[in-house]
Each structure stands twice: as C-alpha cells, then as structure tokens.
Amino acid sequence: MNSVKVTAPTCEYRTNPVGIDVKQPRLSWKLQSAQRGMLQKAYQIQVTKKPDSFDELLWDSGEVDSEQSVHVEYEGPALQPRTRYFYRVKVWSQEGESSDWSETAWWETGFLGCDDWKAQWITPDPASIDPLSEPAFLLRKKFTASGKVVRARIYGTGVGLYELFLNGERVGDELLAPGWTTYHKRLQFQTYDVTDRLSIGDNAMGIMLGDGWYKGNLGWDNKRHLYGDRRAAYFELRVTYEDGTEEVVATDHSWKASTGPIRFAELYQGETYDARLEQEGWSRPEFEDTDWVPAVMQKMPELPLVAQENSPIRVTDILSPLEVITTPAGDTVLDMGQNMVGRMRIKVSAPAGTVVTLKHAEVLDRDGNIYFGNLRKADQLVTYITKGEGVEEYAPTFTFQGFRYVKVEGYPGQENGLPLENFVGEVIHSDMTPTGDFECSNPLVNQLQHNIVWGQKGNFVDVPTDCPQRDERLGWTGDAQVFIDTALFNYQGGPFFTKWLRDLKAEQFENGGVPFVIPAVIPGDSAAAWSDAATIIPWTMYLTYGDKRILEEQYESMKGWVEYMRSQGDDEHLWMKVFNFGDWLAPDAPSNSYSGATPKDFIATAFYAYSTRIVRDAAEVLGKQEDVRMYSQLLEGIVKAFNREFVSPSGRLASPTQTAHVLALAFDLVQGDVKKRTAMELNELVVAQDYHLSTGFVGTPFLCPVLSANGYHETAVKLLLKEDLPSWLYSVKKGATTIWEHWDGIREDGSFWSDNMNSFNHYSYGAIGSWMYRSLAGLDRHQSEPGYKKIRIEPKFGGYSLTYATASLESMYGQIQSGWSISEDSIKLKAVIPPNTTAEIVLPHARLESVREQSTAIEQADGVFSCIQEDDRVILQVGSGTYSFSYPNERGVKPIYSEHTLLIDVMEDGRAMEILQKHAPGITVPPRVIAMKTKTLEEISKSREAGISRETIDALLKELNGHELSLSGK
Predict the structure, then answer these.
(1) Same domain, 874 and 939
(2) Residue 101: which residues within 8 A CB-CB, separation 6 or more?
(3) What is the pLDDT of residue 908?
(4) Which phi and psi angles does 424 have, rounded to 5°?
(5) Is residue 936 classed as helix, strand or coil in its secondary structure?
(6) CA dihedral sign of residues 13, 14, 15, 17
(7) Is there a single domain that holds both residue 604 and residue 554?
(8) CATH of the domain at 837
(9) Which of 12, 278, 330, 539 has the most beta carbons within 10 angstroms of its beta carbon?
(10) Does one domain contain both 221 and 250?
(11) Residues 147, 478: Cα–Cα separation, whole Å
(12) pLDDT at residue 909, as a whole number
C-alpha cells in the first residue's frame, strides 16, 4: 500500500465545475501521507474525454519534476466548447515512491467565448402584459424529445433574476441567479445538467423572471432601472441523442407568457405571494396554456455573456426560532436567536384569502419592541395570501432579508401562540466552502469569532455587501479590502473575489480611478482606502492562494489605480486635497462628522504608498523588471514626501491619533528611531485611553497587528478583551451575533446610535479575525513563499488571561493547525503541517534543551530539520506532519486577570456578592462562574491587573473574613 495518496482534485478552485469558460484551466490537489516531512518530487496529469477509460488520452503531462500541486495549468490541445474533460493525478515523493492515481475528476467547458448561441432574448408581449408591471413573469415552452437522451444541458441567463423549471420541477438549487455583475459589461450565464430530467416524448421548460438587481430598486434614492427596464430570458437546451444527433430548444417567439402568484418582488422591500393565483403544473408539458400570451423577441443592449465564475447563492443553513415574544406594544415576534440573512419558510393552513405578513428586523429596542428604524426605506415585508387547500408551504423567491426578529401578523390562531415548528429560517449566501476555525479560552472572544463568520455569511451574497438589511446592500470597496484577509481565513474565497475583481476592473474609469462601490450603481469617483481594493485584494489572494493568474489579470487595473493617485495634485508623491472618506466612523470623529480625526491627506498618502508597494511587489512576481524599477523609485519618493509632510524633524507624527500611528507603522512609512518612537507613542495612546481603541474602518484592521509586531502584544490583547465602549467585546456583551457598523450601535442605556446609518450586520470591524488567527493562535503564512507553501507557526502568549488558543485553516495544500495551552507548569503547542509544505515554528519562552516533541528531545524528533535558540525562543524548521511540543513554563509565563474579570463564585449565602458590589460597584459578577484558576485575594491584590484598587482589596479582605471564595480569570 502506497503511503502517499492524492486527494481533493479541483479545477479553478472547484470540484467538478460545470460550464466554465477558462481556456487553460488550472488543476490543484492535496496529498495525504503518514510520513513526516513529505514533499512531492514530481507529478503526472492525464486528461481524457472518455468517462470510463484513460486508454485514449487527450493530454498526458508525463512525469514532471516539480513540487507544484496548486494551480497547475492544463497544457493539452485547445479545449472545445460544451465538452466534459476527465482528469487524474499521480505524484512521486522526494524518496521516489509513487502514489496511486487519484480518483477521476472532471471539468466541463461552457461556450469558451464562441458565438454559437441559438437563444434569443424574449419577454412577454408588451401589448398584453405591461413590461413595467410588478408581478413576476412566467415563460414556458413545450417540446418533444424524439429519442433516448444521452446528454442534455441548459445554458442561459436572465435579466433581472430567474428561476428555471423543467417538467414541473426546479432545475438547480441556486438562488437569485444569475447574480449581480456589471450587467452592461458582463452578464453571467449558468449551465445545468438535465440529462436525467428529460423523457422521450413531450417535455416542457419554464422560466420565472423577477426584477432583482437589474431593474429593481437599488441604493437609498429609490432609483430603479439602473441597467434596463425590461425583464427578459435567454436560454437554450441542447439535447444529444443516442444516435449522435443534437437538438436545440431555445428561447424565441414560440414561447408563451403569463404572470403568476408572485405579485411583487423587490430585494429591499420584500415579496407578495398570492397562492390563489398559482397556475399548477405551469411548467409541465400537459399544462393548458391557451390563455397565455405570446412571447416576443426583446432587443437588448449588448450584454457580454460570461460563464458562472463564483459560487452560486444557496441555502446553507436552517435555523429554527428560539421563541415567540409578545412585545410591550403587543406584537407577536419570532426570535431566531441569530442575526441572519435569508428568508423565512412557513407552513400554514387557513381559509382562502387569509393574509399572513412577516416583517423582518435585526434588534429589539430598549423597551423590548421590534425596531425597524435602521431599515430606512427598506420594508423587508413578506406577504403570503393563502389558497385555502390544506397545509400550504411558502418561502419567497426574488428577495432576501437581514434579520433576527420577525413580526408575524395574520397567522391563524396566533393570539394563542405561534406553532414554532411551522417556521424555519433559511440562511442564504454565496456557497463558499468554510476553511478556517478559531477558538480560545475566553468565551466572549469565541462569540466574537462566531459573529465575524456570521457577518461574512450575511454580507457575501454574490458581492461583498456592506449590510444586508437596509436600502443599501452595495459592494463597498472599502469594506471588502479591510476584511479580505479575514475573509480568506474563514472561507474559500477564490472564485468569489475573482468574479468581483473582474467587475471592479470592468467598472474602473479610463483615468484609473475606482468607484466606491462595485458594481457601480451610485455616483462617486475614487477614494483612498476604498479604491485601494484594486491592489489590496488581488495581492492578498496571491499571498493566500499562490494565485499568480489573478495578479496577471488585474495587473493593469492595479497599475491604473496607482497612476490615478500619481496624477492627482501638483506633487506626484503626495495625494492631497481631494475627496476622501477618511477614517470612517472612528470614535475620535468630531461631532456631526462620520470621519475620524486623522487628516484625510495623511490617510490618502499612506495608502498611496501601500498600493505602490503592492504594485512594485506584483511586478516582481510577474517578472516586469522595468515596472519594478519605476515603482521602487515612486515608492521611495512617496515615503520621503510623507516624512517631509507628516513627520516632524524630531520624529513626531503630525497627527496624534491611533490611526495615524497605525498606518505609518503598517505601511513601513517610518524607520529606525522614528519607527520605535511611533510604536511607543501608539502604545501610549492606547494606554492613555484605558486600553480602548479610537480607530475607524481605516485604522482598525491594522491596530492589533501593528502593536503585536512592534513589541506591544499585551496591549493588543488588552484591547481585544475590553468589554466597554469602544471595543469588540462591547457588542458581544450586548448580545450581538454579528458585527456592528458602529462601536456604539446600541448605547449603554439601550438607545440607538442613529436611524440614519446603523447596521447590526456590517463585517468591517471583523477584520480583527485575521490577527486572532495569526497572532493569538500563531497560524500564519511565511513571507518567503505564497499560498502557505511555507507556513509560519508563532503563537504569542504570556502575560494575559488566555490559557489556550487554537486555529485551523484548510489551505490549498491541506489542513494547517496551530494550537497552544499554558499552565503554571508547562507550555504545549500542537502544529499540523500538510504534506508538500514546510514550516518555521517559533516556540516562545523556551529553552532548546527543555523542549520535547511528544517524549523525544527536539534535536532527535522526526521531521524537525533544524532547531536553534534565539534569545528566549526556539526556532524550528520542520516538514509535514502532526507535532506535539511541550516544555516547562520556566519563565513564569502565566495567565493574569485583566480589567473587569474578578469573578466570585459564592459558596454560601450570597453575602460575598453583596460585599463585593458594595466595595467595587463597577465590577460585574455573573450569577455563576466556571473557575479556570483559583487564586487568593492576597494574590489578586498583588497585581493591579485586577482592575480594583489595593484599598478595595484590603476592605474586601477584612469584610469577607471567613467566607470561602473561588476567584477566576475569564
């Protein structure tokens, strides 16, 4: 039995993709091996058109001497449109051992750019059905299959949204197809394998059309028809019979049209469904359609068609309501227990014409009533009208809502309580594969991680939106770029961001500027930190996935953005005096302003340097040496100009804000003694604010990483663990289940920040997640090789109240893990390094002679190539495998108890709690405590970390004499 196995073959990030339009698709695979230090020495790929045999090969790479197992390009003959290709992979280890062939995988091409479509754009005859009417359109076509079908595919798209039916059943499980692209420049089509759905003889296709993003309401100004004012469908069914003949059934004037039960459907406003108007069996061949009207050809503006590029939107989770609430205002409200994005599915039995309404909201107000104010003009209202025929089931089709709470009206018998089993929440988002996980000893931080993930779920609905509930839901570039690194930890985002970046490139202005939102549906030019998505996102994808092609595709766009900034103003090295958002929603913002106190020119020039550095580095990767020289010189000039403009001769930054100091450090704009001073002053700024942050969208993503990287990791952790305003854990303590737009979206007194702009599902501040993975758990890329080909494991612990942290990531090479635990006696670290990678592992506060891998001295451990002592840490170079390191906690590294964490478990009659509240009313004592580590009051009193004065401790000691207490840090 071979010890090396090839697993998880993928094509363009996906498993067995259908209908891709990539002329040289890239293949990737993972390896399994019980052997430590396993590296691939060579690979072989075989491709054939035959599903059951590799006897007739289209392409055989032969044995290629290479470690590459990610993004290996197909190099065989030119691919043909609408064809399935089967492939398999074999590898050899560095010791010459070969694997068996992998399981057979495949990809299937779409049209590959050829103009071979038979379909025509069709819509109902406007003389019979008003094209601007609200009800969803129904289109149908009866046809005959004349023989045994061996292959059948439906290719097609629609404007706005469509659902496809064949012989009375839904085709596919995608929602809100064809997704949202820059429609006038790029429109996705989808491919469906329906081979098993056709019958010899009569068949029928059906298409349902709604407004969606194409012609529905978008933005906060009630604007409609931003791309066009006509719904239309463009589909064709290609059938191959057993005798080799092919038949095409395409949309044309022979189709018929009507309307149905969906009377109204808008993304923001919701949907109205009248079940009495259902046309049962409307997509079956036997349906009588004599009352239907003709479809007509619809002349459309040029809509370049591209194959589906990203993961479709699907139902990904099912949630049941936790409880029914009767609010003080008398409303009946379902609590889903989780702020989610999707739709409610209901069951109801009632007389015909009964009207049931569901109105969706995120939070309750301080009085306990459901709060709709932050929805602005978005109704989020779903109305269902029963047909009166037994148990009816319904979920909306062409809309989605952002909500935790649902106000129910009109449900039969609801005055006696709602039957919870008749309501479920269907979570929808782009169906990306989860890849990352983080956990630590602090349950509030774990809830923060949960909130980050659910914020990403709710806002990754085909584009990275800013919020999923109000009249906005736009692809803001700034939100996307600050969150990209965290996003790619949590989910496989390769296809998602590849598609969105192509829209960004398509929307980019001729002068290189990049709109605020992509797709660009609101007025606006360009802005620092927002438009820098053009450089930051492709570069992050390259670092995360080793995706060189995304750099090649986006390079001119990246250059264009830098050249745009270069052209602004009189000095090509400064970006000054133009519109910018600044440090959006920072707590240090002046009154009546959304922008923080950090000067916008400072921010703009800092990001100008950052993007220039990225383009310089991308040029290096792509071998564009002339550009490397040009952008190296430009970067040098920007850094000099920045220091001249924003740093005093003595080395003090012109702006005394946290964000200014963070950006100067994060983007390497200061060096030497100035860098040390800047880091020290940043730390002082944080300490002076009692370990609270004052950063907004621009500064927050870099705040903790910069502190940790510059020797102030304990400060960064204290920032994370703060529970009062402004902090990450404040919203957690307030019951948040997603990330808020404002640090103080709900204030201490329960009032709201503002109706105007107050999303409770807004992922930007979730960017802290990347630092939690990288610094707290210690799972990181090594800077020497992209895509986790080389891994760096370096947890940071000691001197704060975490006793363990662990993270995992399903990388392109396989699963990586880094997890540590600490006690007063020992420190343990577990690391999992996938085959065909290596890692540098740093063990903090360790002595080489004391480190064991399981029970073996580290120098003799299998898979450890080298180990050195450097100051108070041990640095290891290791190969693949699962490692368990342990060493004595000889340096006294141990958890301490931070502010607001003096927790008391009362063993007797509660008297101790009363005494504590008397002497330290600011300390919250939960009703029950799970003690993680007991300490005496005397020990606590020796440390100011407890957040209680020595005088208070002394008073407690005297008054609590005789009480048995357990103190724990949490």
Answers:
(1) no
(2) 6, 46, 88, 89, 90
(3) 36
(4) -140, 150
(5) coil
(6) negative
(7) yes
(8) 2.60.420.10
(9) 539
(10) yes
(11) 55
(12) 39
Q: What is the pLDDT of residue 934?
A: 35
Q: Are 416 and 423 in contact (CB under 8 A)?
A: no
Q: 891: part of which helix (H) or strand (E)? A: none
Do the domain assignments include residue 896? no
Q: 301 is written with which tokens?
A: 């503006």
The first and second tokens of residue 899, run together, are: 């502010």
CA distance 11 to 630: 36
- Find how far residue 938's CA is from the centre of its chain: 47
Number of folded domains that form the chain: 6
Transcribe 675-699 into DSSP letters: HHHHHHHHHHHHHHTTS-----TTT
Q: Mark 789-799 as b/e (b = at least 16 C-beta within 10 Å).
A: bbbbbbbbbbb
All residue ranges of the chain with pLDDT < 50 are 894-909, 921-950, 953, 957, 961-970
| Residues 204 and 288 grouped into a single domain | yes
Both tokens of 313, joined, read 């939107």
Nearest of 322, 320, 335 to residue 427 by alpha carbon: 320
CATH number, position 334: 2.60.120.260
582 and 728 both lie in a single domain: yes
Cβ atoms of 904 and 925 within 8 Å: the answer is: yes
| Same domain for 585 and 679 | yes
Kindly list the distances between the CA atom of residue 601 and the CA atoms of 336, 578, 866, in Å, as whole numbers in the listed order: 44, 8, 48
Tell me, yes or no, whether 413 and 321 share the same domain.
yes
| pLDDT for 964 | 39
Count the neighbouring beta carbons within 10 Å of the beta carbon of residue 199: 11
Residue 733 lies in a domain: yes
Given a contact cutoff of 8 angstroms between Cβ atoms, the answer to whether 534 and 557 are in contact is yes
Between CA 266 and CA 724 the distance in angstroms is 39
Amino acid letter, 159: V
- How far separated are the first and last CA of the chain, in Å rounded? 49
Tokens 């010189």, residue located? 633
In contact, 183 and 305? CB cutoff 8 Å = no
Report the catalytic residues: 472, 741
Q: Which of 42, 73, 108 is the last residue of a domain?
A: 108
Residues of the domain holding 86: 4-108
Nearest Cα to 488, choosing from 476, 500, 497, 477?
Answer: 497
pTM: 0.92
